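Regression test case RT-17, inverse folding.

Input:
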Protein backbone atom coordinates (compact mmCIF):
# COMPACT_ATOMS: atom_id res chain seq x y z
CA UNK A 1 0.00 0.00 0.00
CA UNK A 2 1.29 3.43 -0.95
CA UNK A 3 0.56 5.84 1.88
CA UNK A 4 0.38 9.55 1.02
CA UNK A 5 -2.26 10.95 3.38
CA UNK A 6 -2.16 10.07 7.09
CA UNK A 7 -4.72 10.95 9.76
CA UNK A 8 -3.12 11.11 13.21
CA UNK A 9 -5.51 10.39 16.08
CA UNK A 10 -4.65 11.93 19.46
CA UNK A 11 -6.19 13.02 22.73
CA UNK A 12 -9.05 10.75 23.67
CA UNK A 13 -10.80 10.41 27.00
CA UNK A 14 -8.43 8.27 29.06
CA UNK A 15 -6.15 9.24 31.93
CA UNK A 16 -3.33 9.43 29.34
CA UNK A 17 -4.92 12.16 27.23
CA UNK A 18 -2.07 14.70 27.63
CA UNK A 19 0.59 12.14 26.72
CA UNK A 20 -1.47 11.13 23.70
CA UNK A 21 -1.62 14.75 22.54
CA UNK A 22 2.15 15.07 22.91
CA UNK A 23 2.74 11.78 21.06
CA UNK A 24 0.34 12.74 18.29
CA UNK A 25 1.88 16.17 17.72
CA UNK A 26 5.38 14.68 17.60
CA UNK A 27 4.35 11.94 15.16
CA UNK A 28 2.42 14.36 12.95
CA UNK A 29 5.44 16.66 12.72
CA UNK A 30 7.78 13.76 11.90
CA UNK A 31 5.40 12.41 9.26
CA UNK A 32 5.23 15.82 7.59
CA UNK A 33 9.02 16.02 7.56
CA UNK A 34 9.03 12.60 5.89
CA UNK A 35 6.82 13.95 3.08
CA UNK A 36 3.32 12.81 4.05
CA UNK A 37 0.15 14.87 3.95
CA UNK A 38 -1.04 14.83 7.56
CA UNK A 39 -4.42 15.55 9.12
CA UNK A 40 -4.37 15.89 12.90
CA UNK A 41 -7.55 14.72 14.60
CA UNK A 42 -7.97 15.50 18.28
CA UNK A 43 -10.57 13.26 19.90
CA UNK A 44 -12.34 14.92 22.81
CA UNK A 45 -14.56 13.28 25.40
CA UNK A 46 -17.78 12.00 23.90
CA UNK A 47 -16.62 12.52 20.32
CA UNK A 48 -15.25 9.09 19.52
CA UNK A 49 -18.38 8.07 17.63
CA UNK A 50 -18.09 11.20 15.49
CA UNK A 51 -14.81 10.01 14.05
CA UNK A 52 -16.41 9.02 10.77
CA UNK A 53 -17.37 12.66 10.16
CA UNK A 54 -13.93 13.95 11.10
CA UNK A 55 -11.90 11.79 8.72
CA UNK A 56 -12.81 13.51 5.45
CA UNK A 57 -11.42 13.10 2.87
CA UNK A 58 -10.60 9.47 3.62
CA UNK A 59 -6.87 9.06 4.37
CA UNK A 60 -4.68 6.23 3.15
CA UNK A 61 -3.85 5.28 6.75
CA UNK A 62 -4.57 6.23 10.35
CA UNK A 63 -1.68 6.70 12.77
CA UNK A 64 -3.16 5.82 16.14
CA UNK A 65 -1.57 7.95 18.86
CA UNK A 66 -4.37 7.36 21.36
CA UNK A 67 -3.36 5.83 24.69
CA UNK A 68 -5.27 4.09 27.44
CA UNK A 69 -8.94 3.15 27.41
CA UNK A 70 -10.73 3.34 24.07
CA UNK A 71 -7.40 4.04 22.34
CA UNK A 72 -5.40 0.87 22.87
CA UNK A 73 -7.95 -1.63 24.18
CA UNK A 74 -9.44 -2.66 20.84
CA UNK A 75 -12.28 -0.11 20.77
CA UNK A 76 -10.86 2.40 18.30
CA UNK A 77 -9.34 -0.47 16.36
CA UNK A 78 -12.79 -2.02 15.95
CA UNK A 79 -14.24 1.28 14.73
CA UNK A 80 -11.42 1.69 12.20
CA UNK A 81 -12.07 -1.86 11.00
CA UNK A 82 -15.72 -0.96 10.41
CA UNK A 83 -14.65 2.16 8.52
CA UNK A 84 -12.16 0.06 6.53
CA UNK A 85 -9.35 2.46 7.40
CA UNK A 86 -5.90 0.86 7.64
CA UNK A 87 -4.39 1.73 11.04
CA UNK A 88 -1.07 1.43 12.82
CA UNK A 89 -0.10 -0.80 15.75
CA UNK A 90 -1.92 -3.93 16.87
CA UNK A 91 -5.33 -5.15 15.80
CA UNK A 92 -8.54 -5.52 17.79
CA UNK A 93 -7.87 -8.80 19.59
CA UNK A 94 -4.19 -8.23 20.40
CA UNK A 95 -4.97 -4.73 21.70
CA UNK A 96 -7.79 -5.99 23.92
CA UNK A 97 -5.69 -8.86 25.29
CA UNK A 98 -2.68 -6.66 26.07
CA UNK A 99 -4.82 -4.06 27.84
CA UNK A 100 -6.39 -6.70 30.10
CA UNK A 101 -3.39 -7.31 32.35
CA UNK A 102 -4.59 -10.52 34.07
CA UNK A 103 -5.49 -12.15 30.75
CA UNK A 104 -2.21 -11.19 29.09
CA UNK A 105 -0.17 -12.36 32.08
CA UNK A 106 -2.04 -15.68 32.16
CA UNK A 107 -1.27 -16.20 28.47
CA UNK A 108 2.41 -15.37 29.00
CA UNK A 109 2.66 -17.75 31.94
CA UNK A 110 0.94 -20.53 30.00
CA UNK A 111 3.58 -20.09 27.29
CA UNK A 112 6.53 -20.41 29.66
CA UNK A 113 7.26 -16.73 30.37
CA UNK A 114 7.97 -15.84 33.99
CA UNK A 115 5.59 -13.19 35.39
CA UNK A 116 5.05 -11.92 38.95
CA UNK A 117 2.74 -13.95 41.13
CA UNK A 118 -0.59 -12.18 41.38
CA UNK A 119 -4.35 -12.36 41.40
CA UNK A 120 -7.41 -10.18 40.85
CA UNK A 121 -9.44 -9.45 43.99
CA UNK A 122 -12.11 -6.98 45.14
CA UNK A 123 -10.48 -3.70 46.08
CA UNK A 124 -11.49 -4.18 49.72
CA UNK A 125 -9.32 -7.32 49.89
CA UNK A 126 -6.07 -6.15 48.27
CA UNK A 127 -4.27 -6.06 51.63
CA UNK A 128 -5.14 -9.68 52.36
CA UNK A 129 -3.38 -11.31 49.43
CA UNK A 130 0.35 -10.87 50.09
CA UNK A 131 2.52 -9.54 52.87
CA UNK A 132 4.22 -6.25 52.00
CA UNK A 133 5.88 -5.36 49.74
CA UNK A 134 3.32 -5.91 46.99
CA UNK A 135 1.97 -4.00 44.01
CA UNK A 136 -1.62 -2.92 43.32
CA UNK A 137 -2.61 -2.22 39.71
CA UNK A 138 -5.79 -1.34 37.84
CA UNK A 139 -6.94 -4.29 35.78
CA UNK A 140 -7.16 -2.21 32.59
CA UNK A 141 -4.97 0.89 32.43
CA UNK A 142 -1.64 1.72 30.81
CA UNK A 143 1.53 3.71 31.57
CA UNK A 144 1.54 2.79 35.27
CA UNK A 145 -1.65 4.79 35.81
CA UNK A 146 -2.96 3.98 39.28
CA UNK A 147 -0.08 1.65 40.22
CA UNK A 148 0.69 1.59 43.94
CA UNK A 149 3.64 -0.14 45.63
CA UNK A 150 2.80 -1.00 49.23
CA UNK A 151 5.94 -1.31 51.37
CA UNK A 152 4.04 -1.50 54.63
CA UNK A 153 0.40 -1.64 55.60
CA UNK A 154 -1.23 1.73 54.97
CA UNK A 155 -3.01 3.23 57.97
CA UNK A 156 -4.44 6.18 56.02
CA UNK A 157 -7.83 6.33 54.35
CA UNK A 158 -8.80 2.83 53.12
CA UNK A 159 -7.76 2.31 49.53
CA UNK A 160 -11.30 1.54 48.38
CA UNK A 161 -12.32 5.10 49.33
CA UNK A 162 -9.69 6.69 47.07
CA UNK A 163 -9.47 4.09 44.31
CA UNK A 164 -10.94 5.23 41.01
CA UNK A 165 -10.38 2.18 38.81
CA UNK A 166 -13.36 -0.08 39.41
CA UNK A 167 -14.27 -2.63 42.02
CA UNK A 168 -11.32 -4.96 41.46
CA UNK A 169 -7.55 -4.68 41.32
CA UNK A 170 -4.63 -6.83 40.29
CA UNK A 171 -2.35 -7.54 43.27
CA UNK A 172 1.17 -8.81 42.57
CA UNK A 173 4.15 -9.78 44.67
CA UNK A 174 6.77 -7.05 44.44
CA UNK A 175 9.84 -8.08 42.42
CA UNK A 176 12.99 -6.35 43.68
CA UNK A 177 15.73 -5.25 41.33
CA UNK A 178 15.95 -3.20 38.17
CA UNK A 179 13.65 -1.92 35.39
CA UNK A 180 14.26 -3.02 31.80
CA UNK A 181 12.28 -2.36 28.65
CA UNK A 182 12.48 -3.83 25.14
CA UNK A 183 11.07 -2.51 21.88
CA UNK A 184 9.81 -4.88 19.18
CA UNK A 185 9.14 -3.64 15.67
CA UNK A 186 8.12 -5.67 12.63
CA UNK A 187 8.66 -8.92 14.55
CA UNK A 188 12.21 -7.99 15.57
CA UNK A 189 13.42 -6.97 19.02
CA UNK A 190 15.36 -3.85 18.08
CA UNK A 191 16.88 -2.98 21.45
CA UNK A 192 16.62 -2.56 25.19
CA UNK A 193 17.19 0.02 27.90
CA UNK A 194 17.49 0.01 31.64
CA UNK A 195 15.45 2.71 33.37
CA UNK A 196 16.58 4.29 36.62
CA UNK A 197 13.67 6.42 37.87
CA UNK A 198 14.34 9.39 40.11
CA UNK A 199 10.99 8.71 41.79
CA UNK A 200 10.45 5.64 44.00
CA UNK A 201 9.54 3.53 40.96
CA UNK A 202 8.94 3.90 37.22
CA UNK A 203 5.55 5.55 37.58
CA UNK A 204 3.58 7.78 35.20
CA UNK A 205 5.68 10.88 35.97
CA UNK A 206 8.94 8.96 35.56
CA UNK A 207 7.79 7.88 32.11
CA UNK A 208 6.65 11.24 30.78
CA UNK A 209 8.23 14.10 32.76
CA UNK A 210 11.47 15.36 31.25
CA UNK A 211 14.42 14.40 33.47
CA UNK A 212 12.37 12.19 35.81
CA UNK A 213 14.30 9.06 34.86
CA UNK A 214 17.71 8.06 33.54
CA UNK A 215 18.08 5.52 30.73
CA UNK A 216 21.09 3.22 30.34
CA UNK A 217 21.93 1.66 27.00
CA UNK A 218 22.42 -2.05 26.49
CA UNK A 219 26.19 -1.63 26.40
CA UNK A 220 26.08 -1.16 30.16
CA UNK A 221 23.77 -4.10 30.87
CA UNK A 222 24.74 -7.77 30.83
CA UNK A 223 24.47 -8.85 27.19
CA UNK A 224 23.08 -12.22 28.26
CA UNK A 225 20.26 -10.50 30.16
CA UNK A 226 19.54 -8.21 27.22
CA UNK A 227 19.45 -11.18 24.88
CA UNK A 228 17.04 -13.04 27.16
CA UNK A 229 14.78 -10.01 27.57
CA UNK A 230 14.66 -9.41 23.81
CA UNK A 231 13.76 -13.05 23.20
CA UNK A 232 10.97 -12.91 25.79
CA UNK A 233 9.63 -9.60 24.44
CA UNK A 234 9.42 -10.97 20.90
CA UNK A 235 7.74 -14.14 22.19
CA UNK A 236 5.16 -12.07 24.13
CA UNK A 237 4.52 -9.91 21.05
CA UNK A 238 3.83 -13.05 19.02
CA UNK A 239 1.74 -14.80 21.71
CA UNK A 240 -0.81 -11.98 21.67
CA UNK A 241 -0.63 -11.59 17.90
CA UNK A 242 0.66 -8.02 18.04
CA UNK A 243 1.87 -6.11 15.01
CA UNK A 244 3.81 -2.92 14.39
CA UNK A 245 5.61 -1.60 17.46
CA UNK A 246 5.27 -2.85 21.03
CA UNK A 247 7.22 -2.24 24.22
CA UNK A 248 7.64 -4.90 26.90
CA UNK A 249 8.49 -3.90 30.47
CA UNK A 250 10.44 -6.12 32.85
CA UNK A 251 11.67 -6.32 36.41
CA UNK A 252 15.09 -7.93 36.71
CA UNK A 253 16.00 -9.35 40.11
CA UNK A 254 19.77 -9.28 39.58
CA UNK A 255 20.39 -11.24 42.79
CA UNK A 256 19.40 -14.37 40.85
CA UNK A 257 21.77 -16.12 38.43
CA UNK A 258 21.63 -15.64 34.68
CA UNK A 259 18.13 -14.72 33.46
CA UNK A 260 16.25 -16.43 36.31
CA UNK A 261 15.37 -13.03 37.74
CA UNK A 262 13.64 -11.67 34.62
CA UNK A 263 9.90 -11.09 35.07
CA UNK A 264 7.70 -9.73 32.30
CA UNK A 265 5.33 -7.10 33.74
CA UNK A 266 3.31 -6.13 30.67
CA UNK A 267 3.35 -5.44 26.96
CA UNK A 268 2.33 -2.02 25.66
CA UNK A 269 0.76 -2.02 22.20
CA UNK A 270 0.62 1.81 21.96
CA UNK A 271 3.98 2.91 23.39
CA UNK A 272 4.49 6.63 23.94
CA UNK A 273 6.15 8.64 21.18
CA UNK A 274 7.08 11.79 23.09
CA UNK A 275 10.54 13.31 23.49
CA UNK A 276 11.04 11.35 26.73
CA UNK A 277 9.61 8.09 25.36
CA UNK A 278 11.55 4.86 25.32
CA UNK A 279 10.77 3.40 21.90
CA UNK A 280 12.15 6.41 19.98
CA UNK A 281 15.28 6.28 22.13
CA UNK A 282 15.73 2.55 21.54
CA UNK A 283 15.16 3.06 17.82
CA UNK A 284 17.73 5.87 17.74
CA UNK A 285 20.27 3.58 19.41
CA UNK A 286 19.52 1.07 16.64
CA UNK A 287 20.22 3.68 13.96
CA UNK A 288 16.57 4.56 13.24
CA UNK A 289 15.82 8.27 13.49
CA UNK A 290 12.36 9.51 14.49
CA UNK A 291 11.01 10.28 10.98
CA UNK A 292 12.21 6.87 9.80
CA UNK A 293 10.58 5.23 12.82
CA UNK A 294 7.14 6.77 12.21
CA UNK A 295 7.48 6.06 8.48
CA UNK A 296 8.07 2.37 9.16
CA UNK A 297 5.11 2.31 11.54
CA UNK A 298 2.69 4.03 9.15
CA UNK A 299 3.75 1.99 6.13
CA UNK A 300 2.78 -1.12 8.12
CA UNK A 301 -0.77 0.15 8.70
CA UNK A 302 -3.55 -2.26 7.81
CA UNK A 303 -6.87 -3.67 8.93
CA UNK A 304 -7.13 -7.12 10.45
CA UNK A 305 -4.86 -8.93 12.93
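Golden output:
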Amino acid sequence: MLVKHVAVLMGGQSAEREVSLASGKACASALRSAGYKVTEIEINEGQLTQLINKITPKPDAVFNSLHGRYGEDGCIQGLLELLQLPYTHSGVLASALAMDKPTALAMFKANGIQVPEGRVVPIQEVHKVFEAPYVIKPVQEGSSVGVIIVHEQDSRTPLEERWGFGGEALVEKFVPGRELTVAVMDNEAIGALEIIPKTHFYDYDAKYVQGASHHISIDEISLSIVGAAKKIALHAHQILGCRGVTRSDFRWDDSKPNAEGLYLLEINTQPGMTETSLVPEIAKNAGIDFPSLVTRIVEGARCGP
